[in-house]
Write a structure and sequence with these properties.
It is a single chain. The protein is α/β, with parallel strands linked by helices and about 325 residues long. It has one domain: Aldolase class I (TIM Barrel). The chain has helices spanning about 15-20, 60-70, 95-110, 140-155, 170-180, 200-210, 230-240, 255-265, 275-285, 290-305, 315-324; strands at about 30-35, 45, 55, 75-80, 115-120, 130, 140, 160-165, 190-195, 245-250, 270-275, 310-315. The strands form two sheets. Strands 1, 2, 3, 4, 5, 8, 9, 10, 11 and 12 form a ten-stranded mixed β-sheet that branches. Strands 6-7 form a two-stranded antiparallel ribbon. Helix 2 crosses helix 3 (about 95-110) and helix 8 runs parallel beside helix 10 (about 290-305). The protein starts with 13 loop residues before the first helix and ends with a helix. Bound molecules: ligand PBG. Ligand PBG binds next to helix 6.
Length: about 325
Amino acid sequence: MFPTKRPRRLRVNHKTRRLVRQIFVKPQNLVYPIFVAENIEEPKEIAAMPNQMHWPPEMAYVPVQKAINNNVYSFLVFGVPNHKDESGTEAYNENNVVCRAIKNIKKHCPEAYIITDVCLCAYTSHGHCGLITESGHVDNDASIKLIAESALAHAKAGADMVAPSDMMDGRIAAIRTTLDDNGYTDTPIMAYSAKYASAFYGPFREAAGSAPGKGDRKGYQMDYAVSAKEACKEFEEDISEGADIIMVKPGIAYLDIVKEASEKFNCPVAVYQVSGEYSMIKAAAEKGWIDERQIVTESLIAMKRAGADIIITYFAPEAGEWLC
Ligand code: PBG
C-alpha cells in the first residue's frame, strides 16, 4: 500500500484549509513607519520608496488617520531635520520635527500609539548614529548620553514608546535611567537589539537623508555572518538593561534570529520589514512580475510563523485592509 500517509487530505479544498490554518497576522500588531520632514509644505514622495511620503509635521496625522481606518493603530516616527551638525543637536531639541509631529498626531488622532525612532544619524552632518571623535571613531559613551536626551525629548512631547536604533552599547540603560529620572517610568523601550549592518536599508537612507558621509556602520551594527549567539548576547543585554520589547532587523532574511528571540526570551519580539524589502516588492510588482498583495501577505505570515509578535512594515495600511 503506497502512499500510506496522505498529507494532501488536509489541503484538498479551501474549506479544509480554512479549518486547519494556524497563523494569522492582525492589523493590531502592525506598526507603520512614517517620515516627517522639515521645510516642505506638501507631502513629497520618497523616490526610492514608491507610495511612501515625507510629511510636513503639521500633516503628520494624515497617514496616521488613513492607517487607523484600516485598523493599524501604531506608528514609528522618523524625523528628517533641516539642520544637521557634528553632534546632532536637533535630535534632542524639544521642539524638533519629531516632537512637533507627535503633538500634531496626538491632537488629531488620540487613538494612535506613537513610537519614535531614536538615533543620531539623521541629525549628524557626518551621518553616523553616534558622535565621531577626532580619530574618526564612533564614541560610544558620549553618544548614549545624547541618545538618551533625544528619547527624553520625544517622551516629553508625548511619545508612547521609544525605539533606539543606534546600536551603541549601554544605550538602553542610559535611556531607561534618563526616562525614569524625569518621571517617564511608564514609557516602554522597544530596542533594535539585533540590528544587522545590511544593504537592505538602502532606500531608507535616501528617505532619512542619513547615509554616512564616510565609512559604514559595520563598527556598531551587527555582522550578518556571525551566528545567532551574537544576537542572543544583544537580546540578553538589552533586556537586562530594561528593554520591554526586542527587535530583529531586517525581516525576511533574518527569520532564524526572530525564531531564536521568540523561543529564548520572555518578552514580545518585533521584526522590521525594512525599506529594501519594501522597495524590492514594489519594483517587481510595478513590472508585473509578482503579485504585491500575495507576496506581502506571505511575507508577513512568514514573520509571524517565525515568532514575531509585532511587525513593522511600510505596507501596514494596505496590509491592514487585506488582512481583515
Ligand atoms: C537609523 C535607522 C535606519 C533604519 C531604521 N533606523 C537606517 C540605518 O541604520 O542605516 C532602517 C529602516 C529601513 O531601512 O526601513 N539608525
